């Protein structure tokens, strides 16, 4: 975006040699229209233009695309303009005339790489937030299910002897926590007594699990 045709053409010719697609704007109105209609990856803008300064253009763009790389290319050379441009979000400031266009190419490459890293970081943060949200939902669901388990236990323990109500408790637990079944053990001194085994038909049978651990336990017959 520059009102000097010679500047625009020289920059365009240089960048097209490196396979960039370049759009020209001879004034602020054309530039802002292009900005709103096209997918712009990076903006080069002059500070001194007839109707709207480059600083005003920069301020306008920052309100809608805060992460767009903007490089000021200006011959004004006023330090206050440089400071203000950087304050408004310019990523670089090059003085005209640019005698070595490789400097411009390097500034553009740096700007595009920085924009890519910002976008990549946003996707990463978004992914982390989704993972945290998913885990939070899972923990909330588990908390509700465990609360149901506690309430069910309180109810079923009033049914009588644990030998009689054990199978019912295990099956209810299995239903609430999507388990395949389980075993109830009672610890007495150095002895672990297996009281009840229940299998809901999902996953590994508790009888198989029991056989794995039986060498270490005394099973109540």
Quick recap:
This protein is an alpha/beta fold and 221 residues long. It has helices at 5-16, 28-37, 54-64, 79-87, 101-156, 162-177, 206-213, and strands spanning 43-45, 70-74, 92-95, 181-188, 191-199, 218-219.
Please render the helix and strand layout as text.
Layout: H1 5-16, H2 28-37, E1 43-45, H3 54-64, E2 70-74, H4 79-87, E3 92-95, H5 101-156, H6 162-177, E4 181-188, E5 191-199, H7 206-213, E6 218-219
Parallel strand pairs: 1-2, 2-3, 5-6
Antiparallel strand pairs: 4-5
Helix pairs in contact: 5-6
Could you say which overall geometry the principal axes of the C-alpha atoms support? Answer: rod-shaped
What's the main sheet like?
3 strands, parallel
The N- to C-terminal Cα distance equals: 90 Å
- Overall pLDDT level: 76
Q: Would you tell me the structural class of the helices and strands? A: alpha/beta
Q: What is the succession of H and E elements?
A: HHEHEHEHHEEHE
Q: What is the spatial order of strands in the main beta sheet?
A: 1-2-3
Count of individual beta strands? 6
Beta-strand percent range: 5-15%
Approximately how much helix is present in the residues? Answer: 55-70%
Please give the radius of gyration in angstroms. Answer: 35 Å
Number of helices, where a helix is a run of at least 4 consecutive DSSP H or I residues: 7
> Regions with pLDDT < 50 over 5+ consecutive residues?
200-206, 208-221
């Amino acid at each position: 975006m520059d009102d000097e045709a010679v500047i625009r053409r020289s920059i365009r010719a240089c960048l097209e040699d490196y396979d960039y697609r370049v759009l020209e704007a001879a004034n602020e109105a054309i530039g802002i229209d292009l900005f709103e209609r096209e997918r712009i990856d990076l903006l080069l803008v002059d500070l001194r233009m007839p109707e709207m300064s480059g600083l005003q253009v920069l301020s306008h763009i920052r309100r809608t695309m805060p992460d767009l790389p903007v490089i000021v290319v200006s011959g004004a050379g006023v330090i206050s303009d440089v400071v203000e441009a950087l304050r408004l979000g310019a990523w670089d400031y090059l003085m005209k005339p640019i005698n070595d266009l490789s400097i411009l190419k390097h500034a553009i490459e740096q700007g595009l790489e920085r924009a890519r890293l910002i976008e990549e970081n946003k996707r990463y943060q978004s992914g982390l937030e989704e993972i945290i949200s998913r885990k939070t939902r899972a923990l909330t669901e588990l908390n509700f299910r465990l609360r149901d388990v506690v309430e069910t236990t309180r109810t079923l323990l009033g049914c009588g002897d644990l030998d009689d109500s054990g199978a019912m408790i295990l099956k209810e637990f299995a239903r609430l926590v999507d388990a395949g079944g389980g075993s109830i053990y009672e610890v007495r001194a150095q002895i672990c007594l297996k009281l009840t085994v229940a299998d809901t038909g999902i996953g590994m049978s508790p009888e198989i699990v029991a056989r794995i651990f039986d060498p270490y336990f005394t099973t109540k017959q």
